[in-house]
Design brief:
The chain has 175 residues and is α/β, with parallel strands linked by helices. The protein is 34% helix and 23% strand. It folds into two domains: 132 residues, 3-Layer(aba) Sandwich (Rossmann fold), CATH 3.40.50; 32 residues, no CATH class.
């Protein structure tokens, strides 16, 4: 089964997660939502979308992609995962409790076959001045890490591996 992993990543964590999910599968590819050729998507049995959240929302290109290609997505086996710092909290780390997945599904009116949420990372060392201090303020308000001298990674790689097994074995929809 050919898979395509399409990511929308702000700082690279979502792309890194896609690479782990793809593993050694040589038939599948990974591509950015910025580069995706929609006409080639019919060549894939599975479409896996991954997207990060910055300042309370997924990137608008993700919304446009899903809304504009909803019928294609509904004709394929699909998976979706969101990457956000809010998912570091136990009560916000599932699709049914994560506010960003709930908002995304409501705005797109799309239901992927399987979905999950991964906690991302706060990489103060690589943020510009504005992002560093706005994110620090958000973290302070939400009881997150405010030490700007390091990167704070929350991604549970065992959860990523478990999701890779889940998408490895799902079957395409019957047309």
């Amino acid at each position: 089964m050919k898979k395509i992993f399409i990511y929308s990543s702000t700082d690279g964590q979502t792309q890194k997660i896609c690479e782990v999910l793809k593993g050694k599968d040589k038939e599948s590819i990974i591509d950015s939502i910025d580069n995706i050729n929609v006409n080639n998507l019919s060549n894939f049995d599975h479409i896996i979308l991954g997207a990060s959240v910055r300042y309370g929302d997924h990137h608008k290109k993700l919304y446009e992609f899903v809304i504009n290609n909803k019928s294609l997505l509904e004709s394929k086996k699909t998976a979706f995962f969101s990457v956000n710092a809010t998912a570091r909290k136990f009560n916000k780390n599932s699709p049914s409790t994560n506010p960003y997945i709930i908002k995304f599904l409501r705005k797109t009116n799309w239901t992927p076959d399987i979905m999950t949420v991964f906690a991302g990372k706060i990489d103060y060392l690589n943020y510009n001045f504005f992002d560093k201090y706005i994110i620090k303020l958000i973290m302070w308000i939400t009881n997150g890490p405010t030490d700007t001298s390091k990167c704070h990674e929350f991604t549970n790689w065992e959860k990523v591996e478990a999701f890779s097994k889940e998408i490895e074995f799902f079957n395409p929809k019957m047309h």
